[in-house]
Structure formats: structure tokens, C-alpha cells
Amino acid sequence: MNHLQHIPILRKCALAAAVASVFVLSAGHAAAQPAAAPTETAMVKLIRGLIQSGTLAKDVGEALLAQAQTEAVAAQQAQQRMTAAATAASANVAGGVRLEPGDVRVPYISQTVRDQIRDEVKAQVMAQAKDEGWAAPNETPEWSKRIRVEGDVRVRNESRSYAGNNSNIEINWAELNKSTGYDVNPNTNLALPSILNTRQDRRNLFRARARLGIYADLTENTKAGVRLASGSDESPVSTTQTLGGGLSKKSVWLDQMWISHKPVDWLTVTAGRFGNPFMSTDLLYSSDLNFDGIAAQFEKKLASNKDLSLFGTLGLIPLEYSSDNSPSRSQDKMKSENKWLLGAQFGADWKIDEDNRVRGALAYYNFRNISGQVSQPCALYAGADGCSTDWSRPAFMQKGNTLMLLRDITLDPLNPAGTPQPQYVGLASKFRLIDLNLRWDTAVAGNNLRLDANFVKNTAYDSRDIWNRAGIRGAIVNNFGATGGTTQADFKSGGNAYMLQATYGKPAPANRGDWNVLAGYKRIEPDSMPDGYNDSTFHGGGTNARGYFLGGSYAIDKNMWFTGRWISTKEVYGPPLSIDTLQLEFNARF
Q: What is the reported pLDDT for 180?
């Protein structure tokens, strides 16, 4: 049997051919030696072993196994015929060599042919090893190619300057809501609530931020991600950690955890805790803010115009769930009270030409059930475990929104003047926002110029509705005029906000020598948006703020850049509050 006929099989399965070639090369040399055809059992065991070890693909191995069995049968039949012929002609001599019964003539294979077979087998095996990633030098496993690690580090020096004539009675409402309540009865409590610093400068605060994410491409259409981040507390709008603290270790928080799937090319559905899925600015949502819940994003280019694409997002975002066990010391539990953000956005991206691009989006955000509600009369003096609307106080707030007292506290009939009245505060306005974002990128003097505009209107804002919602006299506790009055005539608020910004240079420096400069202005009226979710630096976070900002960045190396920023702000309404902030920082991304 001519073993050179198996070379096509060698090319189909490199490793099996290497084993088969050992049999061929050992059988052929200068003088033909007696050899017997390999038994079916030995060859089958060899091929099955290669299949089980994973060296051979199953489909290739089964095909080779079938062919080996067929050839084994043919070889046995040929051997039987040769043996019979040899027995009948035992005196026959071929080339001066007498053939004994059972001998088989094997053709001679030259060294050149053997070298060719060896080289082809080697090339085939190495190619297969490289493609499958199981034997190539320095090759990583296939699964590791679907996982990537990304992160960034920022080190900042921050200074805050306060005007000497600032009001010094700015209450820290967020801190008040975290305690058991502030007693507003002057007969039982003369201590002030927690007060914000508004006059003493803070110089050279070293602060840092670190984020590390692991992202996996499970399939072409399914992805998952987990990200850790630093942070001084559970604030949703900042992952910055103030250094110092006696050189104590710093906290790490679970910042993101999500799964996304693309059922079709133009639609992505993401669930868990994920980055902002909407086109927006930090006027409304901080750049560090992540969203819980589920979001569906679509983006599709028009068939009639490849330079124009449409995009949009639908989001179902849970903000808070009321406690399952509230009131904790009562047999009668409260019903479920949940707070939601329902968001819908639609926009377009138009590449006008090589130098001009316009992107715009219109969004509607409905913050459901986040407004404060006055409770049913509650007799705290008699041991009542809280009041019926304690759940309506916000879990997180910064400052600026109009606030109202939540508890309708029943007075002790035996000592009405001496009845403690510990109060919580809640948001007095409703919030249904229209958010318009526009961006224009163009070229000026060989560099990119980006113009951003953002306008937000709270369509649910109504000063009379706010006043009526409080229900009881004196329940509105802030956002009065400079005289500090308590009447509706002196109430000052508004439902509009806007931002304008110009950025010249590379918007996101990445390579050494990239740079940009920017300038902008913001005005945020007190009830234009919930104050808990926007930028925590501008005016110390929240609403009721107006002012300008200047800044610039320069990349000193690849993925490393320096940024400087100056922010000067004042209040929109109410007592004076002026804050200037300087930030100098190094950023690195990997």
C-alpha cells in the first residue's frame, strides 16, 4: 500500500498526520523491511485518544476514524491475498530476495520526500496551534481575549473661598434628615441644627479619585461589567476621596454592575447599575452619577442619508423603595411607597461636512412620588413610632430645592407648650422636566471648536402649588427673599435652568501635546430640578446657583493630562452666598 497517498489527509488534520507519518517513516528505508498493516484496534484507539484529549476536532477526528477503519479492512484483505500468493509460490524470488509467507513489500521513500512531509506537518501543526491558541508561544487563552480592564486615577488640589458677607445660617438639611429629626419647638430645644460653612476658606485640599472596571464580551451581542470606585461616602454624585485623615486607608464602593444585550443591531438593553444612558450635561446630572434600573438605547443611521443618524433612550430608574419593616415597632406596617424616574429621550446626530457636526436631543424626565407629603396627625409624645410620611424625605439631597416640614405632630394636651416636635423636611415642588441639549462641533484656525447649550424647564413648578402642598402655616422653611420673611409674598424660587459652554481644542486630550481651553456660564433656579443629582462642585452642589467657569487641559503624555478649573458662583435668590473654587489636577487613564 502506497502511504504517500495519505498526504491529503495529513493536510486536513495536522496532528493525526504527524502520528501517521511516524508509521510510514519507520517502515521505509534503503532496503525494504517486512511490515504488517496496523491493526484496526491500535489505530482506532490512537485516533479516539486524540479526539478525547481535544487535540483533534470532533468532526475531523470522526472522519479520520471512519477512513482508518476502511483502510484497515482493505489492508487486511490485501495481506491475506499476498499471504496466499506467497504460500502458493514459495520458491518465487524477487530481486534476489526470497519472500517468505506474510512478507509485504514496502516502497522506498527518499530523504527528500521525508523532509517535505516533515516540513508540511510542522507548518500545519503550528498554524492550527496559533489559530486555536493552545500551543503558540506567548499566546493567551481564548476566554481572556473577551475580558478587558479599564480604569482612571485623578489627583486634585482644591481650594474654596467664601465671601465675608455670606449668610452664616445655611442649614445642612441633608444632615438634619439623617438624624431622628430636629426639634423645632424653642421651648424644648435651643440648639441650632447642623449649619454649613459659608465664611471660612478651605485651602489646598488634596483629593483623589480612582475607578477600576472589568468588562466582558460574553458574546458578540451580550456584555457585562463591574466597576469599583473611591469615595468619602455613599454620595451618588461624587467618587472623590479627601486625603489625610491621619493617613487612614480609603474606602472603595461598588460603582457599577450591569448586563447589556443587543437583540438587534440598532438596540441595546442594559440592566443593573450603569453609566448615564442619556445625552446630558452636569447641569442636570453629575458626570459621576450612575443609574439603577433598566435602559433601552437605540441608534440607527438613515438609509437615505448615511451622515444622519437618530438615537434615543427609554429609562426606568428606581430612586427609592420604602422600608419593608416600617414602622419598626408597630404591628401595622405602612404600604409600599416607591420613588421612580421615568425618562425618555429622542435625538439626532448630523455630520454636515468634514468640519461641522451637530448633535441634539430632547428629553422628558418624570420624577414620580419624590415630593414631600404632610403626615397624618402623629402623637410622638405618646410613643408613636414615627409619622406616616417620614418615607417622603429624600434619601440624598445637596441644597437649593424648596423644602417643607413633613410631620403634623399632635401636642400633648397636658403640656402643649412643652411637647417636643422633631421634624423632617421634604421637597415642596413636583418635578417633570423638559431637557434640551444641543452641541455643535466645527473647525476654527485648524482646531476644533465645540459649543454646548443645555436648557431645563420644570413643567410641574408652581409657586402656589408649593405653598398649598405644605398645608400648615410656616411649613415652608427656605427660599425666601433677602429679608428672611415667611409669607408667600416673600417666597422666591423658579423652575428654569440653562448652561452655555465653549471648548476650543481637543475636547478629550489623549495624546501628548493635546490641549483645550473652555469657558461657560450656568444659572439654576431653586426648583428647576431635584438638587441631589447634578455637579457637586458648582456652588457646592445643588440648585439656586449662578456663575461662570473657566478651565483648560494639556496632555503631558499619552493618556495623562493636567487640568485647571476656576468656578465663581452666587445664589439666585435669598441670603447672599458666594463661593469661588480653584481645582488643579492630574489625570491618568488606562
A: 87
Q: Give the count of alpha carbons within 13 A of 327, CB side only.
A: 14
Residue closest to 556 by CA, chosen among 518, 517, 586: 586
The span from the CA of 79 to the CA of 105, in Å, is 10
Grid cell 468656578 is found at: 567
Which residue type sits at 583?
Q
DSSP secondary structure of 406-439? ---BPPPTTSGGG---EE-EEE-S-EEEEEEEEE
Instruction: Select from 229, 221, 379, 331 the least CA-distant residue to 289.
Output: 229
C-alpha span between 174 and 399 (Å, rounded): 8
Give CA–CA dist 64/59, Å, rounded. 9
- Residue 71 clears pLDDT 70, i.e. is over it: yes
As a dihedral over the C-alpha atoms of residue 114, residue 118, residue 120, residue 123, rounded to 10 degrees, the angle is: -170
Q: Within the chain, what is the greatest distance between any pair of CA atoms?
A: 136
> From residue 111, how far is each of 20, 22, 388 by CA, in Å?
17, 14, 96
pLDDT band at 13 (very low <50, low <70, confident <90, very high): very low
Q: Which residues pair with 432 in a beta bridge?
A: 366
DSSP string, 528-588: SS-TTSS-SSGGGSSSSEEEEEEEEEEEEETTEEEEEEEEEEE-SSSS---EEEEEEEEEE
Neighbours of 437 (CB within 10 A): 23
* Other beta carbons within 10 Å of 53: 9
**Distance between CA atoms of residues 75 and 147, nearest Å:** 51
Q: Does residue 327 have a cis bond before it (omega within 30 degrees)?
A: yes
Among 14, 32, 47, residue whose Cα is nearest residue 6: 14
pTM (global) more than 0.90: no
One-letter identity of residue 499:
M
Distances (CA, A) of 274 to 277, 311, 322, 341: 8, 18, 22, 15
pLDDT in tens, 480-511: 987 767 788 889 999 999 999 999 999 999 99
Grid cell of 373 as nine digits: 407629603
Burial of 172 (0-12, 13-18, 19+ CB in 10 A): middle
